[in-house]
Amino acid sequence: MKALVYHGAGKKRWEEKSLPQLIESTDAIVRVIKTTICGTDLHILKGDVPTVNEGRILGHEGIGIVEAVGESVRNIKVGDKVIISCITVCGSCHYCKRQLYSHCEDGGWILGHKIDGTQAEQVRIPHADNSLHRLPAGVDEEAALMLSDILPTGLEIGVINGRVQPGHTIALIGSGPVGLSALLASQFYSPAHIIMIDTDENRLRVAQQFGADTIINPARQNVVEEIQKLTDGIGVDVAIECVGIPATFKICQDIIAAGGYIANVGVHGKSVELHLEDLWIKNITITTGLVNTNSTPLLLKSVQSGKISPEKLVTHRYLLSQIETAYEVFGNAAQEKVLKIVLTAE
Ligand SMILES: [Zn+2]
Ligand SMILES: [Zn+2]
């Protein structure tokens, strides 16, 4: 089969690999129908994730058809159409018993990281019963693909960790795919006012279409002054950080109201300044996290009923065999106006 293989920092190739085989009795083999590229894949290619070895097939998002299952797999059957969760879940370890699946001792984020991933014609999925979600007939495949990672991440690590409540004023910092996912998910909780902050005008316009009430561009506006005006000097109840750089984390600290929540979603590569000299007295809470994907079954129902349309995040489409071109386009996101790219197998 063909797969996108990592060959060290800056190097990747669409090349021939042997088909994955069942190893454990709890495994399934899935033929990939659709997959996508994540910002995390770009981090890996930059060499930012040293736990990824050369020769690894990248990708942790996808939907597909089950080709084979091990003898212990009970719920997933050959022929099922499934969402591949970015988090592998054993279901019985110390962390899984606390629903902290992202830290599963025999799983967590391993796809396209510690084991071969989904940017391939076929992929082996460990603990298939817990790590695959059967896709009901009639659900849009592109919408379902967004449930592998970004929608659950926006909901769990942004909106739920940030304790968004009806009537809240919330600010999202970063209008990329995950920030926009958090924006979509926040509307389950009816915040009174949603503010999106980003320096990319195109992405701000998309945020407005997705339901942002106010957009702020720090490149030409003073964020703190704008938020003060909007909130009568109080600040926002929730600030959701979806970028992962010191400047955006600072914005969160500058605009948070007393009693507020700062929910960090962004992947940080360097340390940030924490202004406890201002914040110690403000009764705020800061949360961090990696998605657990325990919200995926509920999000799937919301997609099925039409309450949420995450397929709106898809801006570009290619064949899976064109993945190297797709990487170039995705790496040039601002210029190419890319949010999510769908790669479809032939
Ligand atoms: Zn991802
Ligand atoms: Zn586990």
Please estimate the helix content.
25-40%
Listed once per kind, the bound small molecules are: zinc ion
How would you characterize the largest beta sheet?
A: 7 strands, mixed
Integer-rounded radius of gyration: 20 Å
Strand runs, count: 15
Q: What's the helix count? A: 12
- The structure class reads alpha/beta
Order of helices and strands: EEEHEEEHEHHEHEHEHEHEHEHEHHE
Tertiary shape? globular
The low-confidence runs, each spanning 5 or more residues with pLDDT under 50, are: none
Overall average pLDDT: 97
CA distance, first residue to last residue: 12 Å
Binned strand content: 15-25%
Family: Belongs to the zinc-containing alcohol dehydrogenase family.
Keywords: Metal-binding, Oxidoreductase, Zinc
Cofactor: Zn(2+)
Domain Alcohol dehydrogenase-like N-terminal: 26-136
